[in-house]
UniProtKB/TrEMBL annotation:
Protein name stated in the entry: Nucleoside triphosphate pyrophosphohydrolase
GO BP: dATP catabolic process; dGTP catabolic process; dTTP catabolic process; dUTP catabolic process; response to stress; TTP catabolic process; UTP catabolic process
A GO molecular function held by the record: ATP diphosphatase activity
UniProt xrefs under NCBIfam families: mazG (TIGR00444), PRK09562.1 (NF007113)
Catalyzed chemical reaction(s): ATP + H2O = AMP + diphosphate + H(+)
Region (Disordered): 132-154
EC number: 3.6.1.8
Amino acid sequence: MSGARYTLDDLLMLMAVLRDPQQGCPWDVKQDWDSIVPHTIEEAYEVADAIERRAFDELPGELGDLLFQVIYYSQFGSEEGRFGFHDIVHVLTEKMLRRHPHVFPDGHLQSRREGVSAADVETHQVNSRWESLKQREREARVDTGHGYPSALDDVPRALPAMTRAMKLSKRTARVGFDWPDTRGVMAKLEEELGEIQQALDAGDKAHAAEELGDLLFAAVNLARRLGVDPERCLRGTNQRFEQRFRYLESALADEGIRLEDAELEQMEHYWQAAKRASK
């Protein structure tokens, strides 16, 4: 039919055919739970990259790639008789209804809050209620073998280290394990720098590496106190570094100087020029 658009059911059918042992794609047939995880992480980062670049024309494709990862896992679950896509939708909707009693007071989709606009709902109360509900969900799960529910339960171990550090520090801060102000974090950064120097002076690289990890964790805490995402901060720095280094390479090439033959002073000159140009 001319102008017809594919639906979610079409996408689910496509995945089922791709995974068919007889008629499917050999690559898709070979995939399993573990092999798809790296692709899922990569697709999530590509969505974040498109948003940060404001490449909204690319975003439907990137979001589709991320959705396809969910379709993959639902297919694995269906093949093993564990769950299907519609179970994912049901569990998610049920959970969101439970976590938003300020929007759905009766706990179902048709119920609505009356007489109070979204702007009048206190954000801090919503956040507090959200965390309380999540904590009750964590307590209802089977514990991790420690014999007690922990504030750190369900922080995924597979997260990128910096993202996981942010989540760990947020969880502990919520229960009061935090510096009283930003000055305390800055003092911790200075302390960790000093300990790295001591380890290096002692020739103990292994200890220096441990202290470097502590320094990075303290930097993540500073990002939390500033209300910024450390991953996004570092991605921004990576982008600026790349732009400036490419400027340096181009400037040296214009002078007929190979990068490998350039003096450090020449590199520094064009690096500073790149910084000025970027401002």
